[in-house]
C-alpha cells in the first residue's frame, strides 16, 4: 500500500502546482518588438499602386489586350480602365465626376479644349505637363473615313464624276427631298441616311462637322470664326445634318450598329479608319460588302496619353502612370496596334509588313489605303467651341 500512497501524493502535488501557475498574475513581458505579421503593410517599394486610365472607347480592344500583358510584367501597378467618349470625358473631368490618373482622348483637340477650360479657374495649376516624359504623347493614329454599303458608295462616286466621294455631292444627296433619285439611285432606297456620332460627346462627330466645313470653304487652312457665322454656310450645314438619323455618343457603338442594322438605318457614315477595318469582315455575311473612302482632306486622331497633374494624383500614381504609358508606346505594343486597325504612332514601327493579315494589304480592295489625302490644320479651341455651339443651335441633335 505504501507505493500507492506515494503515487497519490505525487499526483496531488502536480495538480496543485498547475493550479498555482494558472492563478498566478502574469509576469511582465519583455519590451522586445514582435515579428511583423503577414497582414502588416509591405514596404512602399513593394506596395501595389492603383491608377485609372480614362480612354476613348474606339481603342478598347487594343488597350485591353495591352493591359493583359502589362499586368503580367508589372504586378506592382494595377490599372482600372474606364471607356468614355472624348468630349463627354473632358466635361466629366472638368466637373469632377471623373478623376483619372491618365486620360487618352481620341484627339489632341480635346486636350487643348479641356486645358483652356481648366485654366479659367486660377486656383488650378496646369492640368498637363507641356514638356518632358509626362507631357501628352500620341499612342496610335487613325484618320476619319467614309464607310458605306458598296452599292450606295458606287452611286455617290458616279454622281461625283467617278472620283472619290465629296462632301458637296453627299450634301446634295442628303438635303434633297427626292432622296436617292436626286443622285441617280433607285427610289426604293428612300432618303439618303447619313451617320456620325454626337459632336458634343464624341470626337468623330466633331471631326465630321469640321471635315464637311473644310470642304465647303475649299481649303485646308484653319477655319475662322467669321466662316462659321456665314448664313450660306449655316444653311448648307443644316441641310447636310438633316440626313443624320440619330447621334450616338460612342464611335465604337455607332460602327457596330451600322453593321448590325445595315442600310435600313445607315447608308454611309463617318468613322475612324481603325473601326472600319475592324468591322469590314463582319458585314460580309449580313448585308453585303462595305466600302471605305477618304475625305478630300485628312483629319487625324492621334490618341494622346496625358498624365494628369491634378491634386488627386499622388507621386506614386504619377510614376506608375508613366510606366503604363511607356508600355503602350513600346515598339512591340505599337506593332500589335496594326492587328486592331490602328497606325502606330511610333514612326520606327513599319506600316507595310509582309504579314498576310496586315489590314493595309488585306483590305486594299475595299478601299483601305496606306497613303491618304493631305492633312488639314485643326482650328484653335475657340473655333471648335463655336462650331459645336452652332450645331447645338440648329437643334438637329434633339
Automatic annotation (TrEMBL):
Signal peptide: none
Highest taxon, organism lineage: Bacteria
Entry-linked Gene3D superfamilies: Periplasmic binding protein-like II
The name this protein goes by in its record: ABC transporter substrate-binding protein
Organism name: Corallococcus caeni
